[in-house]
Specification:
By secondary structure, the protein is an alpha+beta fold. The protein has helices spanning 57-66, 126-137, 156-166, 197-200, 211-217, 289-298, 324-328, 359-368, 371-379, 410-419, 439-453, 466-474, 493-496, 516-526, 532-548, 587-598, and strands at residues 12-15, 37-42, 71-73, 82-84, 92-93, 99-103, 178-182, 185-189, 231-236, 240-245, 280-285, 303-304, 331-337, 340-346, 383-385, 431-436, 459-464, 480-486, 551-553, 555-564, 567-568, 584-585. α8 packs antiparallel against α10 (410-419) and α14 packs antiparallel against α15 (532-548).
């Protein structure tokens, strides 16, 4: 089972570009648009394009097209490095590390839209960020991203409390820690030094919106993304989203520097050129694996954001190399360690599996779940067993740590269950495991089902669409569910906050775990720089996780992409979801490839 550490393998790209024409083994299904356009297959629909309430992966992907924030991560550099986006330079920070002064870029404008006077997008102002940050705090908005600012900005929590008490949101009332000094200068005062503040500002929640657009569209604002970003939404249906280049986009250039190996991979050929290169992006919603795979292999789509889970062997051979099928079609396979982990969540407020009294039931289930066969079967061995919420590549990851509650042993599991008075599963009612639709998700659920059956415990699989599953989880109606967490920024705090009690559902702590000792450790670790003191706190936190077992940690997956040979500048980036602003299409190369065997209609 290959294990990748991003300290030694920052970006593994297996590029296979054989000059072999594959036969046209698919019939033509439609005539694709072959101009300066990238067509993308999305595996699910975005839930909302309102930065304040969008919480799922695909909503964040699409949001990045239209909206921007103050800072972003460099596209090519690893380790990830912060850089300005809507500001001229990185902010000035006071000696006490609590006051940040941002100088906005000149000439940035919002997209043209009928919400503005004469339909012309107006200039960005510092006051727009004051308003946008207040929206995150507005209880009427119900932002899923409020946690990124909660308790951090002077006066903002008090402003929120007044809104809760009065039922009225006073956007024109001042907040001490948010000040637009002039149109291009924003000052933010923090309640305490917080080294992760700028990292949190890279998240879509912190993207800037215009007040008049929010008020013009009202409840329908989530379907009208009007930002400062490189692309603007021009049309959407239930299954397709169309974006066009923003003609008034503020000047940006393709990176001039990268990481080791980027030059050899051709990722610096466009260094210094204005971006974006594309005129249009078309997103097709294809939820099922087989249609997604067939569409990509025909050339209908230029790249895939995920290798289909239902048939990964079609892309990757058992030795971890590209399959013959994709080699023959000149396709590039991109693999890199993900900053993520998969986990099975127990609802700690559930009377059967939650609470201190049911700790040994949870521990027995954790010990009975053997991840090794699942990694081989479902991830082609391209994954690493997860022992803590800190994945490889994030500071604090310990490759030698072994979680005592995750060392597979049916003997120990049965002993613990018997001591808890449930020998052979007696007295444990049938459990319910929520799993999202999709063949592999169901198979993973069935594997969990079989594992727990070894203890004499029955599990009912409740297979539901992702939105319904998340709705149930946020309303604390689930008992057990399977989830993945992709880090929002490259710091271990982002994994540990999933167990912080103040983030209970509908927040990110969907286990509804509450441990005051853990909370205190988390709060200390959140404001410390990386070092021995912080690492010692992480050790204590992982001991509590192992002892209380609110989760069954499963796997750190590899991140994967597939792209046709005519698509250039694609590099997997865990924290920059607008890769499209860097992509370039070789139009002649694509036309030649499609004419000589990919199997779609010619233009």
């Amino acid at each position: 089972m290959p294990c990748y550490s991003s300290y030694t393998v920052r970006h593994l790209v297996i590029a296979v570009l054989l000059v072999v024409a594959a036969p046209a083994w698919f019939g033509c299904t439609r005539k694709r648009e072959l101009g300066n356009v990238v067509r993308v297959a999305l595996r699910d629909k975005p839930r909302s394009l309102d930065p304040a309430i969008a919480h799922d992966y695909y909503s964040h992907v699409l949001l990045r097209r239209a909206y921007e924030g103050l800072v972003q991560y460099h596209y090519l550099k690893r380790p990830y490095e912060l850089e300005p986006l809507l500001i001229e330079t990185m902010p000035a920070v006071s000696k006490d590390q609590k006051t940040y002064t941002f100088r906005l870029k000149q000439g940035v404008r919002f997209h043209d839209d009928k919400a503005f006077k004469d339909g012309k997008g107006r200039p960005l102002r510092a006051q727009d960020f004051v308003y946008s940050f207040k929206r995150l705090a507005d209880p009427k908005v119900g932002s899923t991203g409020w946690w990124i600012l909660d308790g951090l900005i002077v006066g903002l929590n008090e402003w929120r409390d007044q809104a809760l008490e009065s039922g009225q949101t006073a956007y024109d009332a001042s907040v001490g820690g948010l000040k637009a000094i002039d149109d291009h200068t924003l000052q933010v005062r923090l309640t305490k030094p917080f080294p992760l503040f700028l990292h949190r500002l890279t998240m879509p929640y912190a993207n800037v919106v215009a007040r008049e657009v929010v008020e013009f569209y009202g409840k329908d604002f989530q379907n009208h993304p009007v930002g400062t970003g490189p692309f603007r939404l021009t049309n959407f249906t239930q299954n397709q989203w169309v974006w066009e280049r923003n003609p008034s986009y503020h000047p940006q250039i393709y990176p001039k520097e990268g990481s080791e190996g980027d030059k050899e991979l051709g990722l610096l050929k466009d260094a210094g050129k204005p971006i974006p290169f594309l005129d249009k992006i078309i997103d097709d919603i294809l939820i099922e694996d087989q249609p997604t795979w067939l569409s990509f292999m025909k050339g209908d789509h230029d790249y895939l954001m995920r290798i289909p889970k239902d048939n990964p062997a079609a892309a990757i051979s058992s030795d971890g190399k590209p399959s013959k099928e994709i080699r023959d079609k000149h396709i590039q396979l991109h693999l890199t360690p993900s900053v993520a982990f998969n986990y099975i969540v127990f609802n700690m407020e559930d009377p059967v599996v939650g609470g201190e009294k049911n700790k040994f039931l949870r521990k027995a289930i954790s010990l009975a779940f053997d991840e090794a066969p699942a990694i081989e079967k479902f991830y082609l061995g391209l994954g690493l067993k997860a022992e803590s919420p800190i994945p490889p590549g994030i500071w604090g990851y310990d490759p030698n740590y072994r979680n005592p509650s995750r060392q597979y042993s049916l003997v120990k599991a049965r002993e613990i269950l018997a001591k808890a008075g449930h020998a052979d599963g007696r007295g444990v009612p049938e459990l319910t495991y929520d799993v999202q639709t999709g063949q592999v998700y169901r198979q993973l659920g069935e594997y969990f089902q079989r594992s727990v059956a070894e203890l004499g415990i029955k599990v009912n699989l409740n297979v539901v669409l992702w939105p319904e599953m998340m709705k149930r989880a946020r309303q604390k109606q689930v008992q057990i569910l399977g989830l993945s967490w992709v880090y929002d920024y490259p710091d271990a705090e982002n994994g540990w906050q999933l167990l912080y009690s103040r983030n209970e559902a509908p927040g990110s702590n969907l286990a509804n775990y509450e441990n005051p000792k853990f909370d205190r450790l988390y709060e200390q670790a959140a404001v410390l720089p990386n070092g021995a003191q912080r690492k010692a706190l992480f050790v204590k936190m992982r001991e509590m996780l192992s002892e209380d077992v609110p989760w069954v940690l499963t796997v750190h997956q590899n991140e994967s992409r597939l792209s046709h040979g005519w698509t250039h500048n694609l590099k997997i980036h865990a924290f920059e979801h607008c890769a499209e602003k860097y992509l370039r299409v070789d139009l002649d190369g694509r036309n030649r490839a499609l004419r000589h065997g990919i199997g779609v209609s010619e233009p």
